[in-house]
Amino acid sequence: MGGDCVAAAAVDEEPGRVYDPGMRRAFKIAGWFVVLLLVILATTAFVLYRGTQHVPEFYAQALAPTLPPAEQVKLGDEFERETLELHNHATQIGRWEATFTDDEVNAWLANQLPQNYPRALPPGVGSPRVQISPALVQVACRYEGEPFQAVISLAAEVHLTDKPNQVAIRVRSIRAGWVPLPLKQFLDTVTEAARRNGLELVWSQTDGDPVALFQIPSRHAQYQYREIRIDTIEVQDGKLRLGGHTDYASDG
Q: pLDDT of 43-97, one tens digit each?
């Protein structure tokens, strides 16, 4: 009788099919594994999506200035005036310097840039803002395109190199929200954009971080008998100070 029970347990209810408990258990485990994998993928996708929607605190604050609109426009005009004065002083023999605040830069980016230079930014990029601190210069903007929409932010260190008039920008991070983005694609895009604007970038590395090197011309057709030298790029809390001097060209 015991043999009859074992034989009956080994036969499926469907005629001709042999019931294998081990095989059924294996299918059940595989099914649960697939479900678990799908849950993990869905959760990861959700977390990444939410991560790309994160807005850096400095960017949110810069988009909501405390000054009235008229004061913001005035602050942007001040930035333009200081930039023009720096250019004029730099063409004259002697020492010169200028200090720009991130409030002035952001006011100009919010008002004068879209009004006077509507095609300056690439398609899909808008509302750029900056934050200047002794450790890092941060830049952020809104990106609306494929395959996502997010706030893109970049953190970098800016300083002069040992080579005259050569500026180094060490890229510390670039993120969509708080999700890191592939650096190679970013570097290629920046290099091409700089080339279109007549600026040649040379890339190197420092402890694994990409560093953009670019040369500021010491001579120009408008002041061909003078040479400009940048002596200082100083990043302070909320301020960027530039200093240098202009001499007669050695062959002038």
A: 445 455 555 678 889 999 999 888 898 999 999 999 999 999 998 898 899 999 9
β-strand partners of 138? 131, 155
What are the start-end ranges of the H helices in the chain? 2-9, 21-52, 57-63, 69-90, 102-110, 112-116, 183-196
Q: Indicate if 139 and 97 belong to the same structural domain.
A: yes
H-helix or E-strand containing 212? strand 209-215
Note whether 201 and 190 are within 8 A (CB).
yes
Q: Are residues 188 and 243 in the same domain?
A: yes
**For the chain, how many structural domains are there in total?**
2
CA distance 96 to 91: 10
- DSSP annotation of 217: P
Question: Which structural domain, as residue segments, surrounds residue 122?
Answer: 57-248
105 near 128, Cβ under 8 Å?
no
Residues 244 and 204 reside in one and the same domain: yes
Q: Which residues contact 32 (CB under 8 A, 6 or more apart)?
A: none
Report how far residue 158's alpha carbon sits from residue 233's, in angstroms, rounded to the nearest whole number.
8
